[in-house]
Amino acid sequence: xxxxxxxxxxxxxxxxxxxxxxMMADHGAEVIMVEPDNGLGEPTRAMGEKYSEGNSVWFAxxxxxxxxxxxxxxxxxxxxxxxxxxxxxxxFVEAFRPGVVKRLGVDYDAIKAVNPGIVYCSISAFGQxxxxxxxPAHDLIVQAMAGTADLTRGMDGAPALxxxxxxxxxxxxxxxxxxxxxxxxxxxxKQGDYLDISMYDSLLSWVPNVTGAIFAENRQPERSEMRSxxxxxxxxxxxxxxxxHIVLGGSEPKFVANLLTALDAEHLIKEMKKPVGxxxxxxxxxxxxxxxxxxxxxxxxxxNVDCCWSIIRPLKTAxxxxxxxxxxxxxxxxxxxxxxxxxxxxxxxxxxxxxFGEHTAAxxxxx
Length: 367
Fold this sequence. Notes:
Layout: E1 7-10, H1 16-26, E2 30-36, H2 57-63, E3 67-71, H3 76-86, E4 91-94, H4 100-104, H5 108-114, E5 119-124, H6 139-146, H7 148-151, H8 166-189, E6 193-198, H9 199-204, H10 212-217, E7 235-239, E8 245-249, H11 253-262, H12 280-290, H13 295-302, E9 309-311, H14 315-320, E10 326-328, E11 334-336, H15 360-366
Parallel strand pairs: 1-2, 1-4, 2-3, 4-5, 5-6
Antiparallel strand pairs: 7-8, 8-9, 10-11
Helix pairs in contact: 1-8
C-alpha cells in the first residue's frame, strides 16, 4: 500500500486532523491515536448517534484502522515514554491551541531533538502566529471570520448556518498534501519539516472565484452580481409548483442553448451574453416556467436535455443509492469510503475501531 511503513502519531481531535490521518490509515500508514488519559479520550467517541455496540458514527468514520494510545503528558514517566515513541514516528499531528504543545513538552523543537526526520504538522484555527492566533474557534467561527459565511445567505438575505464544515475540510486536505510533500522531500534531504496549517488561511485559499471585485476594484462584491450566488440565471435555484426545486449549475453556451431551445425560448439565448447581474429577463422566465409544473415532471423533462441540472436531494439519498461511496463492515456499520481511487494499491479500509487505550500496553512493551 502507498503509505506502508509510515508511522503517524495523531494528537488531534474532532475532524480536520483525525480525518486526514484516517485517509493515511486507509492507505497503509500505522496511525496511533494519542488520547488524553482522562477517561474519555477522543471527544467524538461519545458524540451523536451511535451504532448498537456503542461507537458513534462520527468516531467510526474518523478512527477506523487506527490504534489507541492513552497518555498523561503531565506525568514525567509517561511523558518520557511518549518521547521514545515520538522518536520512532514519521509524522506528528497536533491540533491544540498555539502554545499548548510547548507547555506539554511535545512541541516541534522537543520532538525534532530526538527525531530530526519528523514531519510535524500543527492544525489550528488561525495559525501559530498573527493577530488571531489565540482566538478560540471551531469551523463555523472560522467561516464567519473569513467572510464565507457572509456569502451563505438565504433568499431573504439573512445569514444561514452552513452545514458543511468547509474550514475543517480545507485544512484537512491541505494538511494531508503538506505532510505528503514533506515526506517526499525527506527522501532526498533526510530531514523532516514543520507544517503550520491554519483553517482560516486554508479556507481563504479556495475563494479565487469570488474575489474579482475585491482584488480588481477594491469593493465588496454584491451577491446579485456574483456568478455563484444568484447573479447568473443558469447558476441558480428555481421553485416548482409543488414546493420542490430545480437547480441549474452550468452557464456554458451549449447548456444555455440546449435548455432554452427545449423550453421554446431561443430568443433569450442572446440575453445570456449579458454580464452576470443583468440577466433578469432570463431569470424571470425560468422562475415562471419552473413554477408551472411539479418537480417530478421537470425531472422527466430535463432527463432528455443536455444541461447542468439537479433536484435538491436529501443526504440520505446520496448515501443510500446504488453506487454510493459507502462500505459496510461485518457488523453492518456503514463507512464513507476513501475518495482516493488508485488503480494500483487502492485504499484498504480496516473497520476495526480501537477501544480507548486499547494498544497502550502493547506499544509500551515494544518501546
